From TrEMBL, chain A:
GO terms for cellular component: plasma membrane. One of its GO terms (biological process) is maltodextrin transmembrane transport. It comes from Compostibacillus humi. The chain crosses the membrane at residues 27-49, 95-116, 128-153, 159-178, 216-239, 259-282. This is Sugar ABC transporter permease.
UniProtKB/TrEMBL annotation, chain B:
GO terms for biological process: transmembrane transport. GO terms for cellular component: plasma membrane. InterPro entries: ABC_transporter_permease (IPR051393), MetI-like (IPR000515), MetI-like_sf (IPR035906). CDD domains: TM_PBP2 (cd06261). Gene3D superfamilies: MetI-like. It is found in: Cell membrane. The keyword Cell membrane applies. It comes from Compostibacillus humi. PROSITE patterns: ABC_TM1 (PS50928). This is Sugar ABC transporter permease. It is a multi-pass membrane protein.
Amino acid sequence: METAGKSVPTIPGNTFLYQLKRKLPYIISYGILAVTTLPVIFMYLWLIIQSFASNMKYGLIPEGFSLENWEFLWTNIVYKGAELPSIWTATWNSLFFAGMLTVLEVLIGVMAGYALSRLTFPGREQILKITMILHAFPSIALLIATFYILNFMSLYDSLFGVVLVKTALQIPMTTWIIKGFFDDVSWDLEWAGLIDGCSRIKVWFRIVLPQVKPGIASVSIFSFLSGWSEFLLLYTFIVSNENVTLASFLQRLTSDPNMVNYGVLSAISLFYLIPVLVFFIFTQKSLMKANVGGVKKV
Amino acid sequence: MKTVINKWKLPAVMLGPFLILIFLFFFVPVILTGILAFTNMDSAMNWEFNRLLNFEKLFSDPDISLILRNTLLYVLFTLCINVFFGLTLALLTTYFMKKEQFSLLFRTIWMLPRMTPPVIYALLWIWFFDPSEYGLLNGIRSLFGLPPVNIIGTEPMLIIILANGVIGASFGMIIFSSAIKSIPEDLFYAANIDGAPHWSIIKDIIMPAIRWPFMFVTLWQLLSLLTSYEYILLITNGGPLNESEVLALYSYHKAFQSFEFGYGAAISLVLVVIALVCTLILWKLFKVKDMIGPSRID
Protein backbone atom coordinates (compact mmCIF):
# COMPACT_ATOMS: atom_id res chain seq x y z
CA MET A 1 0.00 0.00 0.00
CA GLU A 2 2.59 2.58 -1.05
CA THR A 3 1.03 6.02 -1.32
CA ALA A 4 1.98 8.72 -3.78
CA GLY A 5 3.22 11.04 -1.03
CA LYS A 6 6.96 10.71 -0.72
CA SER A 7 8.05 11.23 2.83
CA VAL A 8 5.13 9.81 4.85
CA PRO A 9 6.08 6.28 5.95
CA THR A 10 3.07 3.99 6.22
CA ILE A 11 2.88 1.85 9.31
CA PRO A 12 1.37 -1.46 8.26
CA GLY A 13 -0.95 -1.41 11.30
CA ASN A 14 -2.72 1.65 9.98
CA THR A 15 -3.78 0.49 6.58
CA PHE A 16 -7.30 -0.69 6.10
CA LEU A 17 -6.29 -3.91 4.39
CA TYR A 18 -3.96 -4.93 7.15
CA GLN A 19 -6.65 -4.30 9.75
CA LEU A 20 -9.07 -6.35 7.72
CA LYS A 21 -6.62 -9.20 7.40
CA ARG A 22 -5.99 -9.21 11.12
CA LYS A 23 -9.67 -9.15 11.96
CA LEU A 24 -10.75 -11.58 9.27
CA PRO A 25 -10.52 -14.76 11.37
CA TYR A 26 -12.69 -13.13 14.02
CA ILE A 27 -15.24 -11.91 11.52
CA ILE A 28 -15.42 -15.37 9.97
CA SER A 29 -15.77 -17.07 13.33
CA TYR A 30 -18.55 -14.76 14.49
CA GLY A 31 -20.18 -15.32 11.12
CA ILE A 32 -20.09 -19.10 11.38
CA LEU A 33 -21.46 -18.99 14.90
CA ALA A 34 -24.25 -16.63 13.96
CA VAL A 35 -25.30 -18.64 10.91
CA THR A 36 -25.31 -22.00 12.69
CA THR A 37 -26.96 -20.67 15.83
CA LEU A 38 -29.73 -18.84 14.02
CA PRO A 39 -31.89 -21.93 13.27
CA VAL A 40 -31.69 -22.98 16.92
CA ILE A 41 -32.75 -19.51 18.06
CA PHE A 42 -35.59 -19.52 15.49
CA MET A 43 -36.90 -22.81 16.82
CA TYR A 44 -37.27 -21.56 20.36
CA LEU A 45 -38.50 -18.18 19.23
CA TRP A 46 -41.20 -19.87 17.19
CA LEU A 47 -42.36 -21.82 20.23
CA ILE A 48 -43.10 -18.60 22.08
CA ILE A 49 -44.57 -16.64 19.16
CA GLN A 50 -46.73 -19.46 17.84
CA SER A 51 -48.35 -20.19 21.18
CA PHE A 52 -49.75 -16.66 21.43
CA ALA A 53 -50.57 -16.16 17.76
CA SER A 54 -53.88 -16.87 16.08
CA ASN A 55 -52.25 -17.54 12.72
CA MET A 56 -48.69 -17.70 11.38
CA LYS A 57 -47.28 -16.48 8.09
CA TYR A 58 -44.04 -17.72 6.51
CA GLY A 59 -43.51 -19.99 9.48
CA LEU A 60 -42.37 -17.29 11.87
CA ILE A 61 -44.44 -14.14 11.46
CA PRO A 62 -47.54 -13.93 13.68
CA GLU A 63 -50.85 -12.54 12.48
CA GLY A 64 -52.86 -11.43 15.46
CA PHE A 65 -52.62 -12.16 19.15
CA SER A 66 -54.84 -14.78 20.74
CA LEU A 67 -55.02 -16.92 23.83
CA GLU A 68 -57.13 -19.69 22.34
CA ASN A 69 -54.09 -21.95 22.07
CA TRP A 70 -53.91 -21.94 25.84
CA GLU A 71 -57.45 -23.25 26.27
CA PHE A 72 -56.05 -26.66 27.18
CA LEU A 73 -55.36 -25.25 30.64
CA TRP A 74 -59.05 -25.17 31.52
CA THR A 75 -60.77 -27.50 29.01
CA ASN A 76 -59.83 -31.05 28.13
CA ILE A 77 -58.61 -31.67 24.62
CA VAL A 78 -60.71 -33.94 22.45
CA TYR A 79 -58.51 -36.13 20.34
CA LYS A 80 -59.58 -38.88 17.94
CA GLY A 81 -63.10 -38.63 19.27
CA ALA A 82 -62.03 -39.32 22.85
CA GLU A 83 -61.33 -36.79 25.54
CA LEU A 84 -57.73 -36.72 26.70
CA PRO A 85 -57.13 -36.57 30.46
CA SER A 86 -56.79 -33.11 31.93
CA ILE A 87 -53.43 -31.40 31.51
CA TRP A 88 -53.30 -31.06 35.29
CA THR A 89 -53.38 -34.82 35.78
CA ALA A 90 -50.40 -35.04 33.48
CA THR A 91 -48.65 -32.18 35.27
CA TRP A 92 -49.14 -33.77 38.68
CA ASN A 93 -47.90 -37.09 37.41
CA SER A 94 -44.83 -35.46 35.91
CA LEU A 95 -44.18 -33.61 39.17
CA PHE A 96 -44.64 -36.81 41.17
CA PHE A 97 -42.34 -38.72 38.85
CA ALA A 98 -39.58 -36.10 38.84
CA GLY A 99 -39.88 -35.39 42.57
CA MET A 100 -39.82 -39.03 43.56
CA LEU A 101 -36.86 -39.65 41.28
CA THR A 102 -34.94 -36.75 42.82
CA VAL A 103 -35.56 -37.92 46.38
CA LEU A 104 -34.61 -41.52 45.70
CA GLU A 105 -31.62 -40.68 43.57
CA VAL A 106 -30.13 -38.16 45.97
CA LEU A 107 -30.80 -40.30 49.04
CA ILE A 108 -29.29 -43.46 47.60
CA GLY A 109 -26.55 -41.55 45.82
CA VAL A 110 -25.45 -39.69 48.95
CA MET A 111 -25.31 -42.87 51.02
CA ALA A 112 -23.46 -44.89 48.43
CA GLY A 113 -21.22 -41.98 47.45
CA TYR A 114 -20.10 -41.52 51.04
CA ALA A 115 -19.47 -45.22 51.53
CA LEU A 116 -17.42 -45.41 48.36
CA SER A 117 -15.49 -42.27 49.15
CA ARG A 118 -14.74 -42.78 52.83
CA LEU A 119 -15.36 -46.27 54.17
CA THR A 120 -13.11 -49.31 54.04
CA PHE A 121 -14.69 -52.60 53.22
CA PRO A 122 -13.88 -55.59 51.07
CA GLY A 123 -15.02 -55.29 47.48
CA ARG A 124 -14.81 -51.50 47.44
CA GLU A 125 -12.55 -51.36 44.40
CA GLN A 126 -14.69 -53.82 42.48
CA ILE A 127 -17.82 -51.78 43.21
CA LEU A 128 -16.06 -48.62 42.06
CA LYS A 129 -14.99 -50.29 38.84
CA ILE A 130 -18.49 -51.58 38.21
CA THR A 131 -19.92 -48.13 38.87
CA MET A 132 -17.60 -46.63 36.29
CA ILE A 133 -18.37 -49.26 33.71
CA LEU A 134 -22.12 -48.95 34.25
CA HIS A 135 -21.76 -45.21 33.88
CA ALA A 136 -20.99 -45.81 30.23
CA PHE A 137 -23.20 -48.84 29.72
CA PRO A 138 -26.10 -48.28 27.32
CA SER A 139 -28.96 -49.28 29.58
CA ILE A 140 -31.49 -48.46 26.89
CA ALA A 141 -30.59 -51.74 25.18
CA LEU A 142 -32.01 -53.59 28.19
CA LEU A 143 -35.58 -52.30 27.96
CA ILE A 144 -37.05 -55.65 26.97
CA ALA A 145 -35.63 -57.45 29.99
CA THR A 146 -36.60 -54.52 32.19
CA PHE A 147 -40.14 -54.87 30.91
CA TYR A 148 -40.12 -58.51 31.95
CA ILE A 149 -38.85 -57.64 35.43
CA LEU A 150 -41.42 -54.89 35.96
CA ASN A 151 -44.13 -57.23 34.78
CA PHE A 152 -42.87 -59.88 37.16
CA MET A 153 -42.91 -57.46 40.09
CA SER A 154 -46.37 -56.26 38.95
CA LEU A 155 -44.99 -52.77 38.60
CA TYR A 156 -45.90 -52.47 34.92
CA ASP A 157 -48.01 -49.38 34.27
CA SER A 158 -47.06 -47.92 37.64
CA LEU A 159 -45.26 -44.61 37.92
CA PHE A 160 -43.37 -45.85 40.95
CA GLY A 161 -42.01 -48.78 38.96
CA VAL A 162 -40.69 -46.46 36.29
CA VAL A 163 -39.17 -44.24 39.00
CA LEU A 164 -37.26 -47.29 40.24
CA VAL A 165 -35.99 -48.10 36.75
CA LYS A 166 -34.97 -44.53 36.04
CA THR A 167 -33.24 -44.26 39.44
CA ALA A 168 -31.30 -47.42 38.74
CA LEU A 169 -30.23 -46.18 35.32
CA GLN A 170 -28.95 -42.89 36.71
CA ILE A 171 -27.57 -44.00 40.05
CA PRO A 172 -24.09 -45.00 38.84
CA MET A 173 -23.49 -41.53 37.44
CA THR A 174 -25.05 -39.73 40.41
CA THR A 175 -23.09 -41.78 42.91
CA TRP A 176 -19.92 -41.13 40.99
CA ILE A 177 -20.48 -37.37 41.03
CA ILE A 178 -21.43 -37.31 44.72
CA LYS A 179 -18.43 -39.45 45.58
CA GLY A 180 -16.33 -36.74 43.92
CA PHE A 181 -17.85 -34.12 46.21
CA PHE A 182 -17.12 -36.21 49.29
CA ASP A 183 -13.55 -36.76 48.10
CA ASP A 184 -13.00 -33.01 48.32
CA VAL A 185 -14.02 -32.78 51.98
CA SER A 186 -10.99 -32.61 54.25
CA TRP A 187 -10.26 -35.68 56.32
CA ASP A 188 -9.25 -33.47 59.25
CA LEU A 189 -12.86 -32.43 59.71
CA GLU A 190 -13.88 -36.02 60.09
CA TRP A 191 -11.00 -36.91 62.38
CA ALA A 192 -11.81 -33.93 64.59
CA GLY A 193 -15.39 -35.10 64.90
CA LEU A 194 -14.34 -38.65 65.73
CA ILE A 195 -11.90 -37.46 68.40
CA ASP A 196 -14.64 -35.38 69.99
CA GLY A 197 -16.58 -38.57 70.43
CA CYS A 198 -19.05 -38.59 67.57
CA SER A 199 -19.96 -41.88 65.96
CA ARG A 200 -19.17 -42.38 62.29
CA ILE A 201 -22.79 -41.85 61.26
CA LYS A 202 -23.10 -38.72 63.35
CA VAL A 203 -19.94 -37.33 61.82
CA TRP A 204 -21.34 -38.05 58.41
CA PHE A 205 -24.67 -36.41 59.10
CA ARG A 206 -23.52 -33.45 61.18
CA ILE A 207 -20.13 -32.56 59.75
CA VAL A 208 -19.53 -34.02 56.32
CA LEU A 209 -22.98 -33.68 54.77
CA PRO A 210 -23.25 -29.89 55.24
CA GLN A 211 -19.93 -29.59 53.40
CA VAL A 212 -21.32 -31.08 50.22
CA LYS A 213 -24.63 -29.19 50.19
CA PRO A 214 -23.90 -27.26 46.98
CA GLY A 215 -23.02 -30.49 45.22
CA ILE A 216 -26.20 -32.16 46.42
CA ALA A 217 -28.22 -29.17 45.26
CA SER A 218 -26.87 -29.35 41.74
CA VAL A 219 -27.36 -33.11 41.57
CA SER A 220 -30.96 -32.66 42.76
CA ILE A 221 -31.71 -30.09 40.09
CA PHE A 222 -30.13 -32.26 37.49
CA SER A 223 -32.10 -35.36 38.42
CA PHE A 224 -35.34 -33.41 38.70
CA LEU A 225 -34.88 -32.07 35.20
CA SER A 226 -34.04 -35.45 33.78
CA GLY A 227 -37.14 -36.91 35.43
CA TRP A 228 -39.25 -34.07 34.11
CA SER A 229 -37.95 -34.63 30.58
CA GLU A 230 -38.12 -38.42 30.61
CA PHE A 231 -40.01 -39.83 27.70
CA LEU A 232 -38.95 -43.26 26.53
CA LEU A 233 -39.38 -45.21 29.78
CA LEU A 234 -42.75 -43.65 30.48
CA TYR A 235 -43.86 -44.19 26.91
CA THR A 236 -42.86 -47.86 27.09
CA PHE A 237 -43.98 -48.82 30.58
CA ILE A 238 -47.06 -46.66 31.18
CA VAL A 239 -50.29 -47.39 29.33
CA SER A 240 -53.25 -46.18 31.37
CA ASN A 241 -54.73 -42.72 31.05
CA GLU A 242 -54.60 -41.79 34.71
CA ASN A 243 -50.84 -42.29 34.74
CA VAL A 244 -50.17 -40.09 31.73
CA THR A 245 -47.33 -37.58 32.05
CA LEU A 246 -46.70 -34.37 30.15
CA ALA A 247 -44.19 -36.04 27.85
CA SER A 248 -46.61 -38.77 26.75
CA PHE A 249 -49.45 -36.26 26.60
CA LEU A 250 -47.56 -34.08 24.16
CA GLN A 251 -46.23 -37.03 22.20
CA ARG A 252 -49.73 -38.39 21.63
CA LEU A 253 -50.75 -35.11 20.03
CA THR A 254 -47.57 -34.75 17.96
CA SER A 255 -47.49 -38.25 16.57
CA ASP A 256 -50.63 -37.99 14.47
CA PRO A 257 -49.69 -36.33 11.19
CA ASN A 258 -53.32 -35.76 10.23
CA MET A 259 -54.21 -33.32 12.92
CA VAL A 260 -51.12 -31.35 13.74
CA ASN A 261 -52.26 -28.12 15.34
CA TYR A 262 -49.06 -26.22 15.96
CA GLY A 263 -50.83 -23.54 17.99
CA VAL A 264 -51.93 -25.94 20.71
CA LEU A 265 -48.76 -28.01 20.46
CA SER A 266 -46.51 -25.01 21.00
CA ALA A 267 -48.60 -23.79 23.92
CA ILE A 268 -48.41 -27.19 25.63
CA SER A 269 -44.68 -27.36 24.89
CA LEU A 270 -44.09 -23.97 26.41
CA PHE A 271 -46.11 -24.96 29.47
CA TYR A 272 -44.07 -28.16 29.74
CA LEU A 273 -40.84 -26.22 29.24
CA ILE A 274 -41.39 -23.68 32.05
CA PRO A 275 -39.58 -25.53 34.87
CA VAL A 276 -36.69 -26.34 32.54
CA LEU A 277 -36.30 -22.71 31.53
CA VAL A 278 -36.53 -21.47 35.12
CA PHE A 279 -33.94 -23.94 36.35
CA PHE A 280 -31.81 -23.29 33.31
CA ILE A 281 -31.69 -19.53 33.80
CA PHE A 282 -31.01 -19.66 37.51
CA THR A 283 -28.61 -22.54 37.68
CA GLN A 284 -26.88 -22.41 34.37
CA LYS A 285 -23.38 -22.37 35.82
CA SER A 286 -23.73 -25.29 38.18
CA LEU A 287 -25.49 -27.27 35.49
CA MET A 288 -22.58 -26.78 33.14
CA LYS A 289 -20.31 -28.18 35.82
CA ALA A 290 -22.48 -31.21 36.48
CA ASN A 291 -22.58 -31.85 32.76
CA VAL A 292 -18.85 -32.18 32.49
CA GLY A 293 -19.14 -35.03 34.97
CA GLY A 294 -20.81 -36.94 32.19
CA VAL A 295 -24.25 -37.13 30.73
CA LYS A 296 -25.38 -40.19 28.93
CA LYS A 297 -27.56 -38.54 26.38
CA VAL A 298 -26.32 -38.34 22.84
CA MET B 1 -17.58 -62.00 65.51
CA LYS B 2 -19.39 -58.98 66.82
CA THR B 3 -16.66 -56.61 65.70
CA VAL B 4 -16.80 -58.10 62.24
CA ILE B 5 -20.52 -57.42 62.06
CA ASN B 6 -20.05 -53.91 63.37
CA LYS B 7 -17.37 -53.20 60.84
CA TRP B 8 -19.56 -54.37 57.96
CA LYS B 9 -22.80 -52.88 59.18
CA LEU B 10 -22.24 -49.30 58.08
CA PRO B 11 -21.03 -49.98 54.53
CA ALA B 12 -23.76 -52.58 54.07
CA VAL B 13 -26.51 -50.18 55.10
CA MET B 14 -25.10 -47.30 53.09
CA LEU B 15 -24.52 -49.32 49.94
CA GLY B 16 -27.51 -51.64 50.25
CA PRO B 17 -30.11 -49.73 48.21
CA PHE B 18 -27.52 -48.84 45.58
CA LEU B 19 -26.47 -52.45 45.11
CA ILE B 20 -30.04 -53.73 45.07
CA LEU B 21 -31.01 -51.28 42.32
CA ILE B 22 -27.96 -52.08 40.24
CA PHE B 23 -28.56 -55.78 40.67
CA LEU B 24 -32.24 -55.56 39.75
CA PHE B 25 -32.00 -53.22 36.80
CA PHE B 26 -28.53 -53.87 35.38
CA PHE B 27 -27.35 -57.35 36.18
CA VAL B 28 -30.62 -59.21 35.95
CA PRO B 29 -31.56 -57.46 32.68
CA VAL B 30 -28.19 -58.24 31.10
CA ILE B 31 -28.52 -61.92 31.97
CA LEU B 32 -32.20 -61.97 31.10
CA THR B 33 -31.52 -60.40 27.70
CA GLY B 34 -28.97 -63.13 27.13
CA ILE B 35 -31.52 -65.83 27.93
CA LEU B 36 -34.52 -64.23 26.24
CA ALA B 37 -32.54 -64.00 23.01
CA PHE B 38 -32.80 -67.77 22.72
CA THR B 39 -36.56 -68.01 23.25
CA ASN B 40 -39.53 -67.09 21.13
CA MET B 41 -41.37 -65.29 23.89
CA ASP B 42 -44.30 -63.20 22.73
CA SER B 43 -47.08 -61.31 24.49
CA ALA B 44 -48.20 -64.56 26.19
CA MET B 45 -44.90 -64.44 28.12
CA ASN B 46 -44.19 -68.16 27.77
CA TRP B 47 -40.66 -69.48 28.01
CA GLU B 48 -40.00 -71.54 24.93
CA PHE B 49 -36.44 -72.04 23.86
CA ASN B 50 -35.76 -72.13 20.15
CA ARG B 51 -31.97 -72.36 20.14
CA LEU B 52 -30.43 -70.10 17.46
CA LEU B 53 -33.59 -69.52 15.50
CA ASN B 54 -33.75 -65.81 16.40
CA PHE B 55 -30.27 -65.20 15.06
CA GLU B 56 -30.96 -67.14 11.89
CA LYS B 57 -34.05 -65.01 11.47
CA LEU B 58 -32.02 -61.89 12.00
CA PHE B 59 -29.55 -62.77 9.26
CA SER B 60 -32.27 -63.67 6.78
CA ASP B 61 -34.50 -60.71 7.67
CA PRO B 62 -35.40 -58.94 4.39
CA ASP B 63 -35.13 -55.53 6.06
CA ILE B 64 -31.82 -56.14 7.76
CA SER B 65 -29.52 -54.82 5.03
CA LEU B 66 -31.41 -51.53 4.87
CA ILE B 67 -31.39 -51.25 8.66
CA LEU B 68 -27.68 -51.98 8.92
CA ARG B 69 -26.98 -49.41 6.22
CA ASN B 70 -29.08 -46.85 8.09
CA THR B 71 -27.34 -47.65 11.36
CA LEU B 72 -23.94 -47.22 9.78
CA LEU B 73 -24.88 -43.92 8.11
CA TYR B 74 -26.54 -42.63 11.25
CA VAL B 75 -23.68 -43.47 13.59
CA LEU B 76 -20.94 -42.32 11.23
CA PHE B 77 -22.37 -38.98 10.17
CA THR B 78 -23.83 -38.06 13.55
CA LEU B 79 -20.50 -38.87 15.14
CA CYS B 80 -18.75 -36.59 12.65
CA ILE B 81 -21.13 -33.73 13.44
CA ASN B 82 -20.81 -34.37 17.17
CA VAL B 83 -17.07 -34.35 17.22
CA PHE B 84 -16.12 -31.85 14.54
CA PHE B 85 -18.92 -29.39 14.98
CA GLY B 86 -18.51 -29.66 18.76
CA LEU B 87 -14.83 -28.91 18.30
CA THR B 88 -15.64 -25.98 16.01
CA LEU B 89 -18.05 -24.53 18.54
CA ALA B 90 -15.53 -24.95 21.34
CA LEU B 91 -12.76 -23.32 19.29
CA LEU B 92 -14.94 -20.44 18.23
CA THR B 93 -16.33 -19.73 21.67
CA THR B 94 -13.13 -20.18 23.67
CA TYR B 95 -10.29 -19.24 21.32
CA PHE B 96 -11.69 -16.78 18.80
CA MET B 97 -14.20 -15.02 21.02
CA LYS B 98 -12.46 -12.65 23.35
CA LYS B 99 -15.59 -11.49 25.17
CA GLU B 100 -16.56 -13.95 27.87
CA GLN B 101 -20.23 -12.86 27.93
CA PHE B 102 -20.63 -13.56 24.23
CA SER B 103 -19.10 -16.99 24.34
CA LEU B 104 -21.19 -17.86 27.41
CA LEU B 105 -24.30 -16.71 25.57
CA PHE B 106 -23.54 -18.88 22.56
CA ARG B 107 -22.68 -21.87 24.68
CA THR B 108 -25.91 -21.41 26.62
CA ILE B 109 -27.92 -21.36 23.42
CA TRP B 110 -26.22 -24.55 22.26
CA MET B 111 -26.98 -26.16 25.62
CA LEU B 112 -30.70 -25.49 25.20
CA PRO B 113 -31.43 -28.50 22.94
CA ARG B 114 -29.74 -30.78 25.43
CA MET B 115 -31.86 -29.44 28.30
CA THR B 116 -35.11 -29.46 26.32
CA PRO B 117 -37.34 -32.48 26.90
CA PRO B 118 -36.97 -34.83 23.90
CA VAL B 119 -40.64 -34.59 22.96
CA ILE B 120 -40.44 -30.82 22.57
CA TYR B 121 -37.11 -31.00 20.78
CA ALA B 122 -38.55 -33.47 18.30
CA LEU B 123 -41.57 -31.23 17.78
CA LEU B 124 -39.26 -28.33 16.95
CA TRP B 125 -37.63 -30.36 14.17
CA ILE B 126 -40.94 -31.64 12.89
CA TRP B 127 -42.15 -28.07 12.66
CA PHE B 128 -38.94 -26.80 11.07
CA PHE B 129 -39.30 -29.25 8.18
CA ASP B 130 -43.09 -29.42 8.08
CA PRO B 131 -44.25 -30.27 4.54
CA SER B 132 -46.88 -27.51 4.57
CA GLU B 133 -45.91 -23.86 4.56
CA TYR B 134 -46.46 -23.67 8.31
CA GLY B 135 -42.95 -25.03 8.70
CA LEU B 136 -40.03 -22.61 8.72
CA LEU B 137 -38.21 -24.12 5.76
CA ASN B 138 -41.24 -24.09 3.51
CA GLY B 139 -42.31 -20.73 4.87
CA ILE B 140 -39.02 -19.25 3.72
CA ARG B 141 -39.26 -21.10 0.41
CA SER B 142 -42.73 -19.67 -0.20
CA LEU B 143 -41.26 -16.18 0.32
CA PHE B 144 -39.17 -16.82 -2.78
CA GLY B 145 -42.05 -18.43 -4.61
CA LEU B 146 -40.64 -21.96 -4.36
CA PRO B 147 -42.98 -24.93 -3.93
CA PRO B 148 -43.05 -26.64 -0.49
CA VAL B 149 -40.85 -29.72 -0.01
CA ASN B 150 -41.38 -32.69 2.30
CA ILE B 151 -37.86 -33.38 3.53
CA ILE B 152 -38.93 -35.57 6.45
CA GLY B 153 -40.64 -37.79 3.90
CA THR B 154 -37.89 -37.88 1.28
CA GLU B 155 -34.70 -37.54 3.34
CA PRO B 156 -35.55 -38.88 6.82
CA MET B 157 -31.95 -39.90 7.51
CA LEU B 158 -30.76 -36.35 6.97
CA ILE B 159 -33.19 -35.02 9.57
CA ILE B 160 -32.37 -37.55 12.27
CA ILE B 161 -28.64 -37.09 11.71
CA LEU B 162 -28.98 -33.33 12.02
CA ALA B 163 -31.24 -33.51 15.05
CA ASN B 164 -28.97 -35.92 16.91
CA GLY B 165 -25.88 -34.07 15.72
CA VAL B 166 -27.01 -30.81 17.29
CA ILE B 167 -27.64 -32.52 20.64
CA GLY B 168 -24.32 -34.31 20.55
CA ALA B 169 -22.37 -31.26 19.42
CA SER B 170 -23.11 -29.56 22.73
CA PHE B 171 -21.56 -32.51 24.56
CA GLY B 172 -18.38 -32.18 22.54
CA MET B 173 -18.48 -28.42 22.95
CA ILE B 174 -18.55 -28.57 26.75
CA ILE B 175 -15.76 -31.10 27.06
CA PHE B 176 -13.52 -29.46 24.46
CA SER B 177 -14.15 -25.98 25.87
CA SER B 178 -13.04 -26.96 29.34
CA ALA B 179 -10.00 -28.74 27.88
CA ILE B 180 -9.01 -25.66 25.86
CA LYS B 181 -9.54 -23.43 28.88
CA SER B 182 -7.16 -25.52 30.95
CA ILE B 183 -4.27 -24.76 28.56
CA PRO B 184 -1.92 -22.24 30.27
CA GLU B 185 -2.42 -18.73 28.86
CA ASP B 186 1.36 -18.21 28.57
CA LEU B 187 1.51 -20.56 25.64
CA PHE B 188 -0.89 -18.37 23.68
CA TYR B 189 1.00 -15.20 24.62
CA ALA B 190 4.30 -16.70 23.54
CA ALA B 191 2.80 -17.87 20.26
CA ASN B 192 1.32 -14.44 19.63
CA ILE B 193 4.60 -12.68 20.26
CA ASP B 194 6.33 -15.03 17.87
CA GLY B 195 3.70 -14.09 15.34
CA ALA B 196 2.27 -17.57 14.94
CA PRO B 197 -0.79 -17.71 12.70
CA HIS B 198 -4.09 -18.99 14.13
CA TRP B 199 -3.80 -22.18 12.19
CA SER B 200 -0.51 -23.13 13.75
CA ILE B 201 -1.70 -22.18 17.25
CA ILE B 202 -4.66 -24.51 16.79
CA LYS B 203 -2.53 -27.27 15.29
CA ASP B 204 0.43 -27.13 17.65
CA ILE B 205 -1.01 -25.93 20.94
CA ILE B 206 -4.70 -26.72 21.11
CA MET B 207 -4.88 -30.02 19.26
CA PRO B 208 -2.23 -31.81 21.34
CA ALA B 209 -3.93 -30.59 24.53
CA ILE B 210 -7.30 -32.00 23.59
CA ARG B 211 -6.12 -35.32 22.20
CA TRP B 212 -7.53 -37.35 25.09
CA PRO B 213 -10.82 -35.49 25.41
CA PHE B 214 -11.17 -35.95 21.66
CA MET B 215 -10.81 -39.70 21.93
CA PHE B 216 -13.08 -39.84 24.93
CA VAL B 217 -15.86 -37.91 23.20
CA THR B 218 -15.54 -40.03 20.06
CA LEU B 219 -15.79 -43.35 21.87
CA TRP B 220 -18.46 -42.18 24.28
CA GLN B 221 -20.64 -40.85 21.49
CA LEU B 222 -20.08 -43.94 19.39
CA LEU B 223 -21.38 -46.00 22.27
CA SER B 224 -24.44 -43.86 22.89
CA LEU B 225 -25.29 -43.46 19.22
CA LEU B 226 -25.27 -47.19 18.63
CA THR B 227 -27.91 -47.78 21.24
CA SER B 228 -29.91 -44.56 21.30
CA TYR B 229 -33.07 -44.12 19.31
CA GLU B 230 -35.25 -41.81 21.36
CA TYR B 231 -35.12 -38.89 18.93
CA ILE B 232 -35.54 -41.12 15.89
CA LEU B 233 -38.60 -42.68 17.48
CA LEU B 234 -40.05 -39.25 18.09
CA ILE B 235 -39.22 -37.58 14.79
CA THR B 236 -39.73 -40.25 12.14
CA ASN B 237 -40.43 -43.41 14.15
CA GLY B 238 -38.22 -45.25 11.68
CA GLY B 239 -40.40 -44.35 8.76
CA PRO B 240 -41.38 -43.86 6.09
CA LEU B 241 -41.24 -47.62 5.45
CA ASN B 242 -38.14 -48.39 7.57
CA GLU B 243 -36.15 -45.77 5.71
CA SER B 244 -34.79 -44.29 8.92
CA GLU B 245 -34.97 -47.43 11.05
CA VAL B 246 -31.75 -48.24 12.93
CA LEU B 247 -30.85 -51.49 14.67
CA ALA B 248 -31.63 -50.32 18.22
CA LEU B 249 -35.00 -48.94 17.17
CA TYR B 250 -35.72 -52.12 15.24
CA SER B 251 -35.23 -54.13 18.39
CA TYR B 252 -37.59 -51.80 20.22
CA HIS B 253 -40.21 -52.04 17.50
CA LYS B 254 -39.98 -55.82 17.37
CA ALA B 255 -40.46 -56.06 21.13
CA PHE B 256 -43.01 -53.38 21.91
CA GLN B 257 -44.90 -53.07 18.64
CA SER B 258 -45.08 -56.61 17.31
CA PHE B 259 -44.50 -58.16 20.76
CA GLU B 260 -41.77 -60.52 19.60
CA PHE B 261 -39.84 -60.20 22.85
CA GLY B 262 -37.51 -63.07 22.05
CA TYR B 263 -36.52 -61.72 18.66
CA GLY B 264 -36.19 -58.20 20.04
CA ALA B 265 -33.92 -59.47 22.82
CA ALA B 266 -31.74 -61.24 20.26
CA ILE B 267 -31.19 -57.95 18.41
CA SER B 268 -30.55 -56.23 21.74
CA LEU B 269 -28.02 -58.88 22.63
CA VAL B 270 -26.01 -58.07 19.51
CA LEU B 271 -26.04 -54.41 20.53
CA VAL B 272 -25.16 -55.19 24.14
CA VAL B 273 -22.15 -57.21 23.04
CA ILE B 274 -20.93 -54.39 20.78
CA ALA B 275 -21.56 -51.90 23.56
CA LEU B 276 -19.70 -54.01 26.11
CA VAL B 277 -16.65 -54.16 23.85
CA CYS B 278 -16.78 -50.37 23.41
CA THR B 279 -17.17 -49.87 27.15
CA LEU B 280 -14.19 -52.08 27.85
CA ILE B 281 -12.06 -50.14 25.37
CA LEU B 282 -13.19 -46.89 27.02
CA TRP B 283 -12.35 -48.35 30.41
CA LYS B 284 -8.92 -49.55 29.31
CA LEU B 285 -8.04 -46.23 27.71
CA PHE B 286 -9.33 -43.94 30.43
CA LYS B 287 -8.58 -45.89 33.54
CA VAL B 288 -8.23 -43.39 36.34
CA LYS B 289 -6.43 -45.31 39.07
CA ASP B 290 -5.94 -42.50 41.55
CA MET B 291 -9.68 -41.89 41.66
CA ILE B 292 -9.94 -45.16 43.54
CA GLY B 293 -7.72 -44.22 46.49
CA PRO B 294 -8.25 -46.23 49.70
CA SER B 295 -10.10 -44.93 52.74
CA ARG B 296 -7.97 -43.09 55.24
CA ILE B 297 -9.99 -43.67 58.42
CA ASP B 298 -10.07 -47.07 59.97
